[in-house]
């Protein structure tokens, strides 16, 4: 039994060894075939790489050959170009040398001619000097005396011709323009009649009795100090019976103070807290009045689309005066006048009214900002996107700049018409007297003036000239010279008529 087992094991070992050897031989054969295949693949790859390398080298050599040929061609072309440039430079140098030689020849010729001219001038000057000496000997006048004589004669002739020409031109212009201008202005004034309210820089508040003055002053003056501090207005409580005077430069503050004081007097309770409350109410009331007045102005003139701030500034003009003329009413009147004249001339009526209404808008804030009301008004118009025609009309309505459109000319004329209307403006006695004296002083400063009189409240000046010193032709020029000097040296509302009179009298006595 054991022997069978051993035999079986031995058989198994022998069969395993035989199978192992067979598989080993087969594996070695496969490895050998694989190595042969790999060597074959490597050899083929090396052959392919070698052929690719030879092809790449051939292409590189061909490319280098082509590049060398192209470079040689470019070098040849550039060399040819350089040779052409060198030939041109040589030619230019030769041409410049020739020109320099020609210029030197011309310079020599000019120097010779210059010497000849100088010699000729010296001879001419000598001859001229001899001629002048001979003329002076014959005429008995020196050169300066002869010049003065000729200049006087020419000046007299020119003055005469200028006067005649001015007369002719003025007559022609008046014939063509007077009638039409009168019709347009008369129509405008006829259609726009306006009332004017005179206001001052002070306001008077009536009191029910003199006892109220003490209540307004308050204990140790606390009430009046509070009122003055809150409103910025001075209260003058003097011996004027049953009245308090409010004094201040700002008309809106003065109006706030007036309304506050009237409300306090009606209420009867006057103390600092109540004063503060009434001042606030008065300010709201004045602001509301400003808005209403601005809306009224735009409604009356038919000017729409204004910026709300411009409308508010128009309302502020209600509390401004110029020579006693209410500025808002004046602006409305100018708008109407400009619109009427624009309609007569076929211009833009709405634009004329708009420019007329805004022409004095700068006066609403000229006490708060630096500059004239013209400059401030133009800046405000630009700020709130008004047209260039409106801005130019604002700047030109006092002649500070040249009008660039017919609208600016119409606003200028309408402003003068409104200001010059009798009763439209008033001024203080002192400034009126100074203006009259200055007017007569300007007229008397001209030679040939005998007497002058300012009449029509300074709207006209009559000047009597000496007939032996001023001719009929010269009085036209004399009037123009006086007008120019008045315009440059004197400030006045409206216009001034200059009337120059020359009178010759022949007096004889029958005996």
Distance between the termini: 213 Å
Biggest beta-sheet profile = 3 strands, antiparallel
Rg computed from alpha carbons, rounded to a whole number of angstroms: 54 Å
Strand fraction = 5-15%
**What is the structural class?**
mainly alpha
Folded structure, characterized:
By secondary structure, this protein is mostly helical. The chain has helices spanning 2-139, 143-191, 211-217, 222-231, 251-267, 272-301, 308-316, 327-345, 349-358, 373-383, 388-396, 406-420, 429-444, 474-489, and strands spanning 202-206, 234-236, 243-247, 321-322, 325-326, 449-455, 460-465, 497-502. The strands form three sheets. It has a three-stranded antiparallel β-sheet with strand order 1-3-2, with helices on one face. The model is unreliable at 193-200 (pLDDT under 50).
Topology record:
Layout: H1 2-139, H2 143-191, E1 202-206, H3 211-217, H4 222-231, E2 234-236, E3 243-247, H5 251-267, H6 272-301, H7 308-316, E4 321-322, E5 325-326, H8 327-345, H9 349-358, H10 373-383, H11 388-396, H12 406-420, H13 429-444, E6 449-455, E7 460-465, H14 474-489, E8 497-502
Parallel strand pairs: 7-8
Antiparallel strand pairs: 1-3, 2-3, 4-5, 6-7
Helix pairs in contact: 2-8, 2-14, 4-6, 5-6, 6-7, 8-9, 8-12, 9-11, 9-12, 10-11, 11-12
């Amino acid at each position: 039994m054991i022997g069978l087992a051993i035999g079986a094991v031995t058989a198994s070992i022998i069969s395993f060894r035989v199978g192992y050897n067979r598989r080993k031989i087969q594996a070695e054969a496969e490895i050998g075939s694989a190595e042969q295949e790999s060597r074959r693949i490597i050899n083929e790859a090396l052959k392919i790489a070698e052929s690719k390398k030879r092809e790449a080298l051939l292409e590189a050599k061909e490319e280098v050959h082509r590049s060398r040929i192209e470079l040689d061609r470019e070098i040849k072309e550039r060399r040819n170009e350089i040779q052409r440039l060198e030939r041109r430079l040589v030619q230019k140098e030769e041409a410049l040398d020739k020109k320099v030689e020609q210029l030197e020849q011309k310079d020599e010729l000019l120097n010779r001619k210059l010497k000849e001219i100088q010699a000729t001038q010296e001879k001419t000057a000598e001859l001229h000097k001899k001629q002048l000496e001979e003329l002076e000997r014959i005429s008995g006048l020196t050169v300066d005396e002869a010049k003065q004589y000729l200049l006087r004669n020419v000046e007299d002739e020119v003055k005469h011709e200028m006067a005649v020409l001015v007369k002719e031109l003025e007559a022609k212009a008046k014939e063509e323009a007077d009638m039409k201008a009168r019709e347009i202005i008369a129509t405008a004034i006829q259609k726009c009649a306006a009332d004017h309210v005179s206001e001052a820089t002070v306001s008077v508040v009536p009191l029910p009795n003199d006892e109220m003055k003490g209540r307004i002053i308050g204990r140790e003056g606390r009430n009046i100090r509070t009122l003055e501090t809150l409103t910025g207005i001075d209260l003058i409580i003097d011996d004027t019976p049953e009245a308090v005077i409010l004094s201040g430069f700002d008309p809106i503050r003065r109006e706030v103070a007036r309304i506050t004081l009237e409300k306090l007097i009606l209420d009867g309770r006057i103390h600092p807290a109540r004063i503060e409350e009434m001042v606030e109410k008065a300010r709201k009331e004045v602001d509301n009045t400003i808005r209403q007045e601005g809306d009224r102005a735009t409604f009356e003139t038919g000017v729409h689309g204004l910026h709300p701030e411009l409308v508010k500034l128009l309302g502020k003009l209600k509390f401004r005066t110029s020579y006693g003329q209410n500025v808002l009413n004046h602006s409305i009147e100018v708008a109407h006048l400009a619109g009427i004249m624009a309609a007569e001339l076929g211009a833009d009526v709405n634009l004329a009214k708009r420019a007329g209404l805004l022409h004095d808008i700068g006066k609403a804030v000229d006490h708060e900002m630096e500059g004239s009301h013209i400059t401030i008004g133009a800046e405000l118009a630009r700020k709130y996107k008004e047209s260039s025609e409106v801005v130019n009309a604002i700047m030109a309505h006092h002649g500070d700049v040249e009008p660039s459109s017919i609208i600016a000319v119409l606003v200028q004329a309408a402003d003068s018409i409104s200001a010059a209307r009798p009763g439209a403006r008033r001024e203080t006695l002192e400034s009126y007297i100074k203006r009259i004296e200055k007017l007569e002083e300007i007229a008397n400063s001209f030679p040939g003036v005998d007497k002058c009189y300012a009449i029509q409240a300074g709207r006209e000046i009559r000047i009597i000239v000496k007939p032996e010193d001023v001719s009929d032709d010269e009085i036209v020029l004399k009037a123009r010279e006086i007008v120019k000097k008045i315009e440059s040296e004197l400030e006045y509302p409206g216009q001034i008529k200059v009337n120059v009179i020359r009178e010759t009298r022949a007096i004889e006595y029958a005996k």
